[in-house]
Amino acid sequence: MPQGNKRGVEVDFYDYTYDGGRENDYLSNGLGQLTDGALGETNFRLDPKKTGIKGYEWVGWKDDTLSKIPISIIFKFDSVRNFSQVDIHTNNHFTRDVRVFRSAEIFYSIGGKYYLPHTTKINYERDDTIEDARFVPLRMQNKIGRYVKIDLYFQARWIMISEVSFNSTEAVGNFSEEEPPPTTPQPPTTTTMKKNAHFDSFDRINSNSQSEKLDGDGDTETLSAQEEDEEGAKTKLEEGASNNSNDAPTLEQEKKEYDDEYISIIIGALAALIFLLLCVILIFFCRHKHRKNNNNRRGHKPVTTSHVAINLNDLRASTNGKLSNGNMYNSIATEEADSDHDGVGCCNGSSRGSEKFACKYPITPTH
């Protein structure tokens, strides 16, 4: 594995106890702080064991560019083993640019020179709440190997690890080292090409998307290689049966039915829209006509067609023939007027023309 990096002036995240070889800041063939059983504190600037070195329990690596290049750690065991789980104690002091790794890939090998293509990939859910250091368990699904390579991908600027422990048992059986991959692939037949292409694409999809949640820490892991191959073969058989049962006329008929259904939906929507538009126009026309009628009624005044008939003969009779100095009292002349005109033509038999006048004596009203 690569040697740790220095942080600032006071803190060095080196593996001080590594007993193997050191060459160009690369450690190999030895053991160190990652297997000594000592766990680091969340605050890596402390020195709880009074060693005089702050962050002594931690081995840390930084990536200033946030590239996708992982930190690779290779573990070698005395014999071929069956691995079930690995626990990695890591820090999540995110206010200091330290986080748990974003994802991890685990590779297995018998000889240590070539690693099997089928790996275990685990994605870790980002924690923005708790900064405490914690163990992150990674399931290994009972994979077989003597060499285990773990690639850790950065989530922040720093990855810090203080302990790595494995749960495994010794594998039973005869195991041979992996053969080197062929440099010049043989030209496959048409059937073999389709099969390989199908499984290769299926493996790539599963390596990126299929995952399971780990218990308690939000980890995810992909399916094993055997499960991927079985599911890929099953999917291929189902697709082949479906392709054989469907011929070209059936596809054309389905397409035509789909087009007809789509067109009918469009026609129905347009008809509904036209109906709503007609309703709006009708309502607007009725309201406009009603308003116009109200305005016409307000502009016209009522005209009275009744007439008053006046009988001039009745009016002349009510004046007693003459007016006394123009004074009347309930159509009865006053006493002064009557006395002045006594004997003056009152009972005169002379007449003008054919008109005759009758003498009227005053009547004293009774009380």
Automatic annotation (TrEMBL):
Gene expressing this chain: 106052299
Region (Disordered): 172-252
Residue ranges constituting the Discoidin domain according to the UniProt record: 1-168
Domain of life: Eukaryota
Keywords: Disulfide bond, Glycoprotein, Membrane, Signal, Transmembrane, Transmembrane helix
Membrane topology, from the record: Single-pass type I membrane protein
Transmembrane segments: 262-285
Phylogenetic classification of the source organism: Eukaryota, Metazoa, Spiralia, Lophotrochozoa, Mollusca
Descriptive protein name: Discoidin domain-containing protein
Cellular localisation: Membrane
Sections of the chain in a coiled coil: none
Organism annotation: Biomphalaria glabrata (Bloodfluke planorb)
Glycoprotein listed as a keyword: yes
Keyword Isomerase recorded: no
